[in-house]
Amino acid sequence: MTFTDPLLEGLDVYIVGGAVRDELLGRQAGDRDWVVVGSTPEALIGRGFIPVGADFPVFLHPVTKEEFALARTERKTGRGYKGFTFYTGPDVTLEDDLNRRDLTINAMALGPDGEIFDPLGGAEDLANRVLRHVGPAFEEDPVRILRLARFAARFADFSIAPETMALCRQMVAAGEADALVAERVWQEISRGLVSEKPSRLFDVLAQCDALPVVMAGFEWNTAVGARLDALAQSSLSSLPAMYAVALLTSEDREALSIRLRASNECAQWAKLLPTVFEYCERDPEWVTPQAAEQVLALIEAADGVRRHERLVALVSIVYQLLEKPADRLLSLLLAAKAIKAGEIAQPLQAAGAPVISQAVRSARLTAIKQRLVSLKVDGVDQSD
Q1: Last residue in a domain, options 55, 86, 121
Q2: In the predicted structure, residue 384 carries a pLDDT above the cut 50
Q3: CATH code, domain carrying 34
Q4: I want to staple 143 with a disulfide (CB 3.0 to 4.6 A). Which of 39, 59, 81, 207 is the partner?
Q5: 232 and 153 in contact (C-beta within 8 Å)?
Q6: Confidence (pLDDT) at 380
Q7: What is the span of the domain harbouring residue 274?
Q8: CA triplet 129, 199, 185: central angle to 5 degrees?
Q9: pLDDT digit string (tens) for 137-177?
Q10: Contacts 24+ apart (CB under 8 A), 66-70
């Protein structure tokens, strides 16, 4: 891969990090990150680049909007991931910049003529499928523990170098992980959950003793991991779904979601999935008079008319976990959704909201009962 851009002429510029790694792996690369060596903010602004970096000089290309950063070094000045000062003078070399990165596979650069700069052995570690930290500076930033776990989930066939795992344990023991803020934890956890093998995210955090620190109250075991990995390979996979399944056996899901600053959607899925699971696990006798009420109660508990697609997804996930067909219950949910509340409400406007609400509920209950009858004939299940 080579690159040309008239705006970059005269600059010592490289593509760095993940785009280079993925190119060598033959994977589709995401956004390209660029580093500029031997330049200044004034020089880039003079070429039309737009400054956006708050902590250190980062600029947007005026046409592509890709991010260009001046080569920099870092110096640890305090605990946590914010305890750094940065230096971006023209004397900072490409190797200086690569040396501050997290893993060797992320510390390669690509020049405009396609030449790979790899002073830290990243290509060899790629070939050997090893995640290895760049150097001692790794321990200065606890976010790198989370990134290591996320990359382990993304690259499921990569091992972790023993010295890298030992360093992570030392960092946790030294209290570095205590300084992680919820937003950064959630950023890495959420990305790891939608990776190739999400169980490795939590396995790695557990192995280096960081899991109780970053996710206090989270119950982790091999059964949860197996469920996550199975869901990751299915058409039902999504971030809310993965998060909800991860927390299914944890007791205090709401408090954990608050501590993690999880998105509202993820928190709601995590809250609802146990209710749906409990209902589906009972697998009630569908010919009993109580069955229709139970289905409607589930719909109401999960806001399943207004958020029908979410309830369908939750039910489908549960039945996949239970290894049972979901068609029967999904058919009942659809029958309830088919009731047009507006048509029922129109002639009852004068009667008031409570009467309208009860009429709509009765119509939905009747629709579910009728669908139950169509699924059962003389007590024999016809849904298959």
Answers
A1: 121
A2: no
A3: 3.30.460.10
A4: 81
A5: no
A6: 41
A7: 219-379
A8: 95
A9: 899 899 999 999 999 999 999 999 999 999 999 999 999 99
A10: 66/31, 66/32, 66/33, 66/34, 67/31, 67/33, 67/34, 68/13, 68/34, 68/35, 68/36, 68/44, 69/33, 69/34, 69/35, 69/36, 70/35, 70/36, 70/39, 70/40, 70/41, 70/44
Q: The whole model's pTM is what?
A: 0.87
- pLDDT at position 83, please? 52
Residue 348, domain member (yes or no): yes
Decide: residue 163, CB within 10 A, 0-12 exposed, 13-18 middle, 19+ buried.
exposed
Residue given tokens 């910049």 in the structure block: 97
Do residue 177 and residue 234 come from a single domain?
Answer: no
One-letter amino acid for residue 108 of the chain: M
Residue 193, domain member (yes or no): yes
| Claim to verify: residue 206 and residue 271 sit in the same structural domain | no
In a domain, 384, yes or no: no
Listing DSSP states for 315-331 in one string gives: HHHHHHHHT---HHHHH
What is the C-alpha to C-alpha distance for residues 105 and 258, in angstroms, rounded to an integer? 34
